[in-house]
Amino acid sequence: MRNLMFSIIAAGALTALPAAAQTAAGPDLSAGARHLAERALADPTAWKVVESLTTEVGPRPVGSPAMVRARDWGVATLKALGFENVHVESFETPTWARGPESAEVVSPYPQMLRILGLGHSAPTPPGGLTAPIALFRSYQDMLAQPPGALAGKIAVVTQAMRKTQDGSGYGAINAQRTAGPAEAARRGAIGYLTRSLSTAEDREPHAGGAAAAGIPAAALSPADAEQLERMAATGKPIVVRLDMASSENPATPAWNVVGEIRGREQPDEVLVLGGHLDSWDPGTGAIDDGAGVAIATAAARLVSEQGRPRRTIRVVMWGSEEQGGSGRAYGAAHRLEASKIIVAGESDLGADPIWSLSVPRGSARTPAMQAFLSVLPGLKVIASPQPPRFGGSDIAGLIAQGVPFVDFNQDATRYFDVHHSAHDTLDMVDPPSLAQNVAVWAAFLYTVANSDIDFRKLAQQEARK
Ligand SMILES: [Zn+2]
């Protein structure tokens, strides 16, 4: 298939390590890591990958025809960049697809509202659903309502999300979207509207998943949530009409797309790194998560430029993160191999710089991790004393089987201004920041793949101390 970056990037993998980083005892890991980090800062691969994906595929909700094109794009891209063992791993997952949708205030002040239906929202009856609203300025206020208190009403929660560097504002308010529809339905509500989990003050609604609740549920733009607050403050009853269509497929075909740089000495010892290929539909999935796909792909390719590593590096483009399923499928498919997976990581918090990171417990003072950590000051990254906590939802299936993992924390300050909205497009990606991510991951992959570091053993030793 035609691909923007093919004309720009030669598939020149597996060239030799520069003499400066080679010693009689093998590669000098510190020199190699520093060399790679420098190369990464000037390497256009990640940008070309995210540009190609967002331009030539665009939005790619799991279950859509675009996701089939994304799968083929992933295979073609990995092959063009010199990856080996490029293949597709199929699975099935339940999915939800948006149809036409609108919302409006019927009275007292008729006007349109900007919404996006939430994943697993029920459709409204044909012709729409018109009902009075019950507005709550905090999610806790809605939860305090007794059963039946919201009977016949559309529940509206307008609590705003807090902007934070570490993204913790999202975790703190997430239930308002994911569990809100079910909690409202439990109290008798016939519809649910939440202020978008957005840190922008604008009129873009932000999509996202929710647990199925059997009622129509949507996210309001921040501006529309505030508009409803002002109307509610007048004391007049507010009537809203929702008109939403959607469909569900309980067994949608989906794919994880895989490519490897095979190890020269221990090919069965594998480092797994990736991002997710699927996206929500309003934007083109540039920061969520075309950037992660690009960072992982570019970092692995850069390591391969230095010669074949000792261990295998595997890039995975997970195929159903937003609606769930790809992490579970990957964990299940690799159950027999899990004990040989040395470490796993996922890049899925945008394209802004990594500002701190956590390496697995007990590993920081090893020669391999010292070599890796030596590149961090030059990239303005803090080595956190805390062990990794999350890893990423697509590697959760591996982590549950005891696979060691890392957290490379991207600066999330602006991420939720854009996340899951129409603003998630390529112009939100800053090329130097994207390259900084590649530099950190490339240095990490290089030092781990060219050493015999055993994170499981180190964690056990640390636990015994
Ligand atoms: Zn994501």
Q: Let me know the number of strands.
A: 16
CA distance, first residue to last residue? 55 Å
Shape: elongated
Bound molecules: zinc ion
| Beta-strand content estimate | 15-25%
Gyration radius, rounded: 23 Å
The tally of helices reads: 15
- The portion of residues assigned to helices is 25-40%
Low-confidence stretches: 4-20
User: Quick one: biggest sheet?
Assistant: 11 strands, mixed
The overall pLDDT average reads: 95
- Given helix and strand content, the structural type is alpha/beta
Task: Detail the topology: elements first, then pairings.
Blueprint lengths: L21 E2 L2 E2 L1 H13 L3 H12 L8 H16 L3 E24 L3 E3 L1 E3 L11 E8 L2 H5 L10 E4 L10 H6 L1 H4 L1 H7 L4 E5 L21 E4 L1 H12 L5 E23 L4 E11 L9 H20 L5 E8 L7 H8 L7 E6 L7 E5 L8 H7 L8 E2 L12 H4 L7 E4 L4 H4 L12 H19 L5 H10 L1
Parallel strand pairs: 6-7, 7-8, 8-9, 11-12, 11-13, 14-15
Antiparallel strand pairs: 1-2, 3-4, 3-10, 5-9, 6-10, 10-12, 14-16
Helix pairs in contact: 1-11, 1-14, 2-9, 9-14, 11-14
Bound molecules: zinc ion.
The site of zinc ion (ZN) has 5 residues, from helix 9.
